[in-house]
Amino acid sequence: MTKSYYITTPIYYVNAPPHLGSAYTTLACDVIARFKRLDGFDVTFLTGTDEHGKKVADSAKEEGLTPEAFTDKYSQIFRDLTKALNISNDDFIRTTEERHHKACEAMWNKLEENNQIYLGVYKGWYAKSDEAYYTDDEVEVRADNKVICKASGKECVWEEEPCYFFPLSKWKDRLLQFFDEKPDFIFPRSRREEVINMAKALDEKKPTGEPKYDIPISRSKFKWGIPVPGHPDHVMYVWIDALANYITGVGYPDVESESFKNKWPADVHMIGKDILKFHTIYWPAFLMAANLEPPKRVFAHGWWTNEGQKMSKSLGNTISPYDLIQTYGLDQTRFFLMRAFPFGKDGDFSEKAIFERVNTCLANGLGNLALRSLTMLQKSFDGKMPVPDDLTSNDQKQLEKMHGLVDDVRKSIDKQAIHSALDEIWDGVSATSKYFTNQSPWKLAETDPKRMGTILYVTAESLRHIAVLAQPFMPDSMNKMLDQLGAPSDKRTIASLTWEGALKPDTALPLPTVIFPRYEMKELVPQEPKKRARVGNSRMPGF
Ligand code: ME8
Q1: Which helix (H) or strand (E) holds 306?
Q2: Tens digits of residue pLDDT in 163-210
Q3: Quick one: how many helices (H) and strands (E) in the chain?
Q4: Would you call the peptide bond into 265 cis, given omega within 30 degrees of 0 as the criterion?
Q5: Please, what is the Cα angle at 361 between 468 and 406, to 5 degrees?
Q6: In the chain, which segments carry CATH 1.10.730.10?
Q7: What is the mean pLDDT of the chain?
Q8: Helix 475-484 crosses helix 368-381 at what angle (to 10 degrees)?
Q9: Which residue of 51, 149, 196, 405 is 20 to 30 Å from 213, comparing CA positions?
Q10: For 4-319, CATH number?
Q11: Class in CATH terms, 352-496
């Protein structure tokens, strides 16, 4: 039976347009989902939008729209971006959908049935931008008297309202035990300590004796949310609603359905590091309390900054993915975002970096190698894949190296070390370039055409391995390269990376064309970052 693989992105708030950061998470999941599909898995890849809560309700009001009209409009903008980025999601969930309301109600009822909900009054800090509650120690007063969360820098206001609570304090030991039993739950491992320390504090009390970290899971001051079953004066807290999207997406509450049984627990929830606590503390506790298994892994990646500053709408320094795609091309943008810095770490955006990466690795590197070798095949072999002669030890070494790539790339993808997977593929590109240069087939056209044909065959077969493995990163361009190499469309999976799947001699090849054009530095607009045309949402449809 085909093994299933379930991967999710966070669902994005619709109060602001998508930017490079949200595109980054979705793209990373897309690369992994595409790789797993190529590797024979039955993949379910879910993304979507988070549409309830105070933040969204207020944004709708500011724009003079009803929350329904506002969320319809902005959710579509996120959906459009998935198309523009060539994202292969299998489903797009909106928390305003009926299926999600049903799932949330069922989860709430289960928690209530299991005595995991009690009524109380919340008195404390709330940051609308984060849709999060903070304790006294987590906030500080700034010089302008504003209270801000120390970690997120977001403004907090004092709230007092009747709420239903989830007794997180009681889950401390179970969570610690779970982290201990599942050392691979939190990735990268460097983030584990932080989560374990958070869990260790869960049974602390406020000076009043109340549990400090029990979570208010309903709100009674506004209406834009899923009504609490049996208590219509409360709506569910947006985070319990949002996290439940991951189970809605695979058929909850029908836990006996094939879908739920095959796909839950999810293989990976991909998130940014800002929402680690919600996914590694709140979510496993809610799930265990509702008799469900926690996901197998939560991977928290780092932040993109722009010229050293965190990208945010309020700073006006967000980068539009549409602008990058328009300037550099879709696959070039996809490649750059995944290669710019190690996945899991923070990284800074600079146009110089994207310009250099695209030219060096794609136009001058892989693209040039493919074009040169395929042009030689046209000129000297009538556009047909030559029949290779006996292989020298250099040829064999080269092909063995190519055959070894897949295992390394697979291991990296399974650790979500996406940058390492690309590094490994590019080691293959460098090895092939070196082989091609050392063997210098162009010198043999007159003297030894048979040997020339063998070198070009080995080069083409090496390029096939590279193109198959790089498809998840650059689907269109790599398919174009595989067309030019004469690889049949049913021989482009990971399983085809064997000697049996090798390119067939005598196959007629189409005329090669440039896959990755070279960019001139003058195409960039050297202005102040905040005034630049491609910074902000200048070309974001709908903005
Ligand atoms: O937090 N760099 O939604 P959100 C890298 N609705 N990634 C970034 C980024 C940046 N500068 N900015 C945003 C929410 N992201 C909740 C999630 S899930 C059940 C609910 C990415 O619209 C990153 O993945 O604020 C982050 O976690 C996500 O966008 C947050 O999106």
Answers
A1: strand 304-306
A2: 999 999 999 999 999 999 999 999 999 999 999 999 999 999 998 889
A3: 19, 18
A4: yes
A5: 30
A6: 352-496
A7: 93
A8: 20
A9: 51
A10: 3.40.50.620
A11: mainly alpha
Band of pLDDT at residue 316, cut at 50, 70 and 90: confident
Q: Whose CA is nearest to atom 3 of ligand 1?
A: 12
Residue 305 CA, closest ligand 1 atom number = 11
Q: How far apart are CA 523 and CA 351, in angstroms?
A: 11
List where CATH 3.40.50.620 sits in the chain: 4-319
Sign for the pseudo-dihedral over CA of 120, 123, 129, 132: negative
Q: Are 18 and 78 in contact (CB under 8 A)?
A: yes
Ligand 1, pocket-test mutation among 20, 275, 287, most atoms within 8 A of CB: 275
Please give the Cα distance from 332 to 466 (Å, whole number).
Answer: 16
In 3D space, the residue among 484, 276, 461, 302 whose CA is nearest the CA of residue 387 turns out to be 461
Backbone angles phi, psi at 436, to 5 degrees: -60, -45
3-state DSSP of 398-425: HHHHHHHHHHHHHHHHHCCCHHHHHHHH
Phi (first) and psi of residue 138, to 5 degrees? -90, -5
Cβ neighbours around 512 below 10 Å, total: 21
